[in-house]
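Two proteins follow. First one:
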Amino acid sequence: MQALKYKINVIDFSDFTNLESIGKGKIHRAAWNDCKTTVALKSFQEKNDEFFKELKAFIDFYKVSCHPNIIGFYGVTK
């Protein structure tokens, strides 16, 4: 998986339960069993090298921000 190339955490999809569609597009609320927390899962069509490069830059930018209004990023799943 290209996510590993960019050192993006990969989470097994089977770790999520109770998927519920929220909002428009491909966004779902799910229970993350390992962390006992509710998360949002967003689906992306683009999965090429350029996509992961931009995603990694986005993650690195927001990783330094410790603000209550910025949603945390935990990783990707397949």
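Second one, unrelated to the first:
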Amino acid sequence: MIHPSYVELMQAVNKESEPDEPIVKSRYSIVTAAAKRARQLIDHADTKVQETEDRKPLSIAVEELNEGSVKILSAASAQALQEEMERAEQLAEEMRAAAANEEADTEEAEEASKEVTEEKDAEEAETTEEA
């Protein structure tokens, strides 16, 4: 017998959801989620549980789902999360650009200050030589 059973796995996945709105409603959904996670593991995603050499990706995926280490998102939740990540990346890029501009402005100001100081020093040297 497979452990955990489909029923146990569905209960584990749905334990954090609203009673009237389960995340997983059928065996098909749980099998699809486990298969998708197994493909991610095959593509070298980090495991969330202890990995051993003799365990297959599907076994690891089922354990992750059973322990709650990996969450299943609805299509709407996944889309909202993707949009939020894109906004965060855009904001981070804007912040990097602003920091680069500020750094460039600071360097320009320092160079201008240095030039003014050098001009004053040159004028003082000329005044001292004339005297």
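SUMMARY FIELD: The mean pLDDT is 86. The chain has two domains: 1-72, 74-131.
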